[in-house]
DNA sequence: TACGCGCATGAATCAGGCA
DNA sequence: ATGCCTGATTCATGCGCGT
């Protein structure tokens, strides 16, 4: 079967006559027009990854001189916040009509757009159930050192109203999270490796989402056989995961290139083997604690003195978690330890000690105390 | 000294005449009126923890003064959102006026209000720099098992405009985070234990923020001696941490109970020793040294050869501090480095190396030596 | 085959001072 | 406002290549 044969091309009028849902198909059209053609209260869940309206300045180069490939596509350009808001409210209103009364909607965004989206969601009568933070395990750094590393994106999960009886598979989520309630912060790597769709070595879509993210969303809020609509289908992550999990899907996408890639991808996706489900859970990472966190949380006070085990070196703890030696040298626990010893590297956690009850103890002991106090 | 003596009671008119800032004081008044009484462009940072209000019922009134007793139908919802938006825009506008042009504002909230706050921030011309996620190490579980555990709150950090030159202590944040860039997701325990203010065993304020959170905010975005304004002061976490870190603070709070608790708490807070307050400085803060100065002072001799770390490029030092490549290209250390690499820019200090004791060392090391020898 | 090294790259609102 | 010069700045991951 040809790749494009499953892509339904519809004019708005033709689509309006089609009563049955275009299940497991891609509708190549503008999302507002395409949603208008769908019956009211017909889908169980909507997952939407709308344009973020990034407002990027000039070129950005890495410290090594290489160029950052930014999102410059026309579909992300809006003239003003007012235009973006109008667009947002239009598609959210249509989504509200199409969604079943007990269905829910998910929208993902970044600080560029998510506040406007969230306000529109509330204004249109949706009832926000959670905001979810996708913590990126491997975000792009802030190359110029001008801000905090932008290391997360935000998802909004909402029902059609306060009293809607939505689907939430509490047990599935708890099982997935090692028998602890699933929290509102999720950690996943960004989409890369073999999962990232490429054509001639170039990424097909600039913002392809990881399947693990959609997997959790669909597992949490839909039942097998449910219909999931994605009005900004892109390269079809939602469709691929829905097929794997035995859910029906409808994708709406304007760009022919994206439609073709999505169609091919979903064709190749295989419904999930039950045994594979268990192996999808990533082991919980060993929590890391930065030395500065101990200062912030008053386990050590700025001004406190540290020494090495043999009291050959001394250093004072400063407000930002750096150390200052009486000789004038400063640096992190690792760097200053290395400097004072003339060594290329040093594990500051075991090198530096603090005095308690007349005895020297490594600062690593404080880290263990902190972990015990904060980890469930 | 009595607890309340430091609390300045001001009517709006009386305050309007007061030109000097009420530094290190609590102003017991409505925050919008109190901010109106402050001079324009007078504070370096604002930290705001506004009421969340929505969907909790209770103290919500319509613009006409009538009471909203239940937020049930869509119309009431819209009505209350509009009211909350008006309040939000009013205090954010006043904050914009009071803030110095190169100052920044922080606002914290949850999904109940943060989307409305964020949209207002953008609409008022603030430029969002980051949104920050406070991941709670020990959140309250979702008892009914109907949603994800609400385990985070969101902070928005914004400047007064796109081109503002705000304070961001990059090196301090990197040091605090074990020599990795500080990310946009921060983990802290919720406020409890001895830090939590209680009276007769009952918590004084329902949403007291942890000091560790304010510690990081103030350390990241202010300098010692800066003025920090908190228009929703509550029990004064911002003031207590500001005092500890050697920053001035101004607190605005309507409730006398909170003012009293905050005043007592801040009285008891101890400022850090000045030396402990010192933090890691960015190279930007160091005095500049022109490469030619090193040649003048015979740290390098004209005619000496430099290479990059991988010995792919070579250049000769000339008498005026410019470099000449064997291929004929010439220029400053930066310009020639960029030219030879075909890069848009280059930091010559770290790109070019000289040979000493059989090893390559960056010429930046010579600059450090020069600085140590010449700085008092 | 295994391991190490080099290189590429990801939704990014990414510089500042002076002439 | 514009242009020019100086010079500060990156983390995790995957893939290809060489030993």
Uncertain segments of chain A are 1-6, 10-17, 274-285
Mean pLDDT of chain A: 89
| Count of discrete alpha- or pi-helical segments spanning 4 or more residues of chain A | 13
Q: For the report, how would you describe the main beta sheet of chain A?
A: 9 strands, mixed
Sheet/helix structural class of chain A: alpha/beta
The CA-CA distance between the termini of chain A, in Å, is 52 Å
Proportion in β-strands of chain A: 15-25%
Principal-axes geometry of chain A comes out as elongated
Sheet with the most strands: spatial strand order of chain A: 1-2-11-10-3-4-6-5-7
* Rg of Cα set of chain A: 26 Å
Largest interface: A-B, 79 and 84 residues
The topology string of helices and strands of chain A comes to EHEHEHEHEEHEEEHEHEHHHEEEEHHEEH
Q: What share of the residues of chain A lie within helices?
A: 25-40%
- Record field, number of beta strands of chain A: 17
Assembly type of the chains comes to homodimer
Q: Explain this structure to me?
A:
Two copies of one chain form a homodimer. The longest helix of chain A has 18 residues, at 81-98. Chain A contains 13 helices and 17 strands. Chain A has helices at residues 12-17, 31-36, 81-98, 114-123, 170-176, 211-221, 237-244, 256-268, 274-279, 291-296, 333-341, 348-351, 363-374; strands spanning 7-8, 25-27, 43-48, 99-109, 127-136, 152-159, 185-188, 198-199, 202-203, 227-230, 248-252, 305-307, 314-317, 323-324, 330-331, 353-356, 359-362. Chain A is elongated, with a radius of gyration of 26 Å. Helix content of chain A is 31%, strand content 20%. In chain A, strands 1-2-11-10-3-4-6-5-7 form a nine-stranded mixed β-sheet, sandwiched between helices. In chain A, strands 12-13-14-15 form a four-stranded antiparallel β-sheet. By secondary structure, chain A is α/β, with parallel strands linked by helices. Chains A and B meet through helix 4, strand 5, strand 6, helix 10 and strand 15 of A and helix 3, helix 4, strand 5, strand 6 and helix 5 of B. Chain A binds a DNA duplex (19 and 19 nucleotides) through loops.
């Amino acid at each position: 079967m040809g790749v494009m044969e499953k892509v339904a091309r519809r004019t708005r009028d033709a689509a309006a006559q089609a009563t049955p849902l275009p299940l497991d198909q891609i509708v190549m059209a503008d999302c507002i027009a395409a949603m208008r053609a769908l019956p009211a209260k017909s889908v169980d869940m909507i997952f939407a990854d709308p344009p973020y309206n990034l407002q990027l300045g000039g070129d950005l180069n890495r410290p090594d001189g290489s160029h950052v490939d930014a999102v410059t596509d026309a579909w992300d350009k809006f003239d003003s916040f007012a235009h973006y808001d109008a667009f947002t409210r239009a598609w959210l209103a249509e989504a509200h009509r199409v969604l079943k009364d007990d269905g829910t909607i998910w929208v993902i965004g970044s600080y560029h757009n998510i506040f406007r989206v969230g306000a529109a969601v509330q204004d249109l009568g949706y009832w926000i159930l959670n905001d979810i933070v996708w913590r990126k395990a491997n975000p792009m750094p802030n190359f110029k050192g001008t801000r905090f590393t932008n290391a997360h994106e935000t998802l909004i999960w909402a029902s059609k109203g306060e009293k809607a009886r939505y689907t939430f598979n509490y047990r599935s989520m708890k099982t997935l999270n090692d028998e602890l309630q699933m929290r509102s912060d999720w950690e996943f790597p960004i989409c890369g490796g073999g999962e990232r769709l490429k054509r001639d070595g170039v990424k097909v879509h600039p913002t392809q989402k990881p399947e693990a993210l959609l997997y959790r969303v669909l597992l949490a809020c839909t039942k097998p056989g449910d219909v999931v609509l994605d009005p900004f289908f892109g390269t079809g992550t939602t469709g691929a995961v829905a097929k794997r999990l035995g859910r029906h899907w409808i994708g709406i996408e304007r760009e022919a290139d994206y439609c073709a890639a999505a169609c091919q991808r979903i064709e190749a996706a295989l419904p999930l083997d039950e045994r594979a489900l268990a192996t999808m859970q990533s082991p919980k990472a060993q929590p890391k604690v930065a030395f500065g966190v101990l200062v912030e949380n008053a386990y050590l006070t700025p001004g406190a003195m540290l020494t090495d085990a043999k009291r050959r070196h001394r250093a004072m703890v400063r407000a930002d978690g750096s150390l200052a030696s009486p000789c004038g040298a400063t640096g992190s626990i690792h760097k200053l330890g290395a400097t004072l010893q003339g060594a290329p590297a040093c594990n500051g956690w075991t090198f530096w000690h603090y005095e308690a009850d007349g005895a020297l103890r490594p600062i690593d002991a404080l880290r263990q105390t902190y972990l015990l106090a904060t980890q469930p």
